[in-house]
């Protein structure tokens, strides 16, 4: 092999190895593509927000006047379960219902409550159908014989009236929910008549609390983020307006991980072009 041929072979190998290395880097780099594949990410505005659950609640109230089937709520068969925990001399009971339905949790709601059957615990995040079941139906928490909390779940979300009491059975708090959304949540519309939602802002006690969504006029998601005690927390994501065949991130902004973190300055974590190619990253 002459010297020129040898150099060409070395150059070819170097290019091949570099390309292969870039492919491996892209495969392990979560920022390498801004195209979102998460099937639970909302790609359009919710349809008839609140109405389904409100209709179901009305039917539930009507059914109470009749002889209702045992452990059936909102037309769904459930199983009644009890969790008992002890701390010193205090015994707490949680009586609740869950459904075997494989219905997907609402991706717009931050807190999805489910029963972890393996660990015998109720959790409000990280739901995986293979590991547990969505809470559905009435819930009651007691300390000894004293009821301290009551409410209703609707496919993993708080629904209707929730109340908490102190040890003397005096009402301490009362909240109302619609499929996980606090009743006072703020909704703005591009066109209210056509229910073209612009922004969904969860509100509790006059403060933003929960998942925030902003949509484009055609219904595609434009911005997602989370509020805690009225402050932006965690990672907020902006999305490009596309032809709906895919969802592409535009920019990520990192906020404080917890509310009231003094001195924290938000920063742009990464940016992508309309095709999903990474164009900026703050390391």
Automatic annotation (TrEMBL):
Q: Which residues form the signal peptide?
A: 1-21
Q: Does the keyword Signal apply?
A: yes
Q: Which keywords belong to this entry?
A: Signal
- What is this protein identified as? Antitoxin component YwqK of the YwqJK toxin-antitoxin module
Q: Which source organism does the UniProt entry give?
A: Cyclobacterium plantarum
């Amino acid at each position: 092999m002459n010297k020129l041929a040898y150099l060409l072979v070395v150059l070819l190998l170097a290019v091949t190895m570099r390309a292969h290395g870039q492919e491996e880097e892209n495969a392990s780099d979560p920022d390498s593509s801004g195209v979102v594949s998460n099937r639970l990410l909302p790609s359009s505005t919710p349809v008839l927000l609140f109405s389904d659950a409100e209709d179901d609640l009305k039917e539930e109230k009507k059914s109470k006047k009749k002889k209702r089937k045992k452990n059936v709520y909102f037309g769904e068969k459930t199983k009644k379960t009890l969790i008992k925990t002890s701390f010193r001399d205090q015994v707490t009971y949680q009586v609740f219902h869950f459904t075997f339905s494989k219905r997907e949790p609402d991706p717009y709601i931050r807190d999805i409550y489910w029963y972890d059957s393996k660990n015998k615990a109720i959790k409000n995040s990280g739901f995986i159908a293979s590991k547990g079941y969505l809470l559905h139906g009435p819930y009651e928490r007691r300390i000894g014989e004293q009821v301290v909390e009551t409410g209703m779940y609707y496919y993993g979300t708080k629904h209707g009236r929730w109340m908490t009491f102190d040890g003397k059975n005096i009402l301490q708090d009362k909240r109302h929910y619609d499929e996980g959304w606090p009743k006072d949540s703020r909704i703005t519309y591009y066109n209210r008549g056509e229910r073209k939602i612009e922004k969904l802002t969860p509100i509790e006690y006059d403060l933003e609390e929960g998942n925030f969504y902003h949509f484009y006029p055609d219904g595609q998601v434009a911005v997602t983020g989370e509020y805690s005690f009225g402050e932006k927390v965690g990672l907020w994501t902006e999305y490009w307006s596309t032809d709906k065949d895919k969802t592409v991130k535009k920019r990520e902004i990192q906020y404080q991980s917890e509310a009231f973190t003094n001195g924290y300055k938000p920063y742009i974590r990464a940016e992508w072009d309309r095709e999903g190619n990474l164009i900026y990253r703050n390391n």
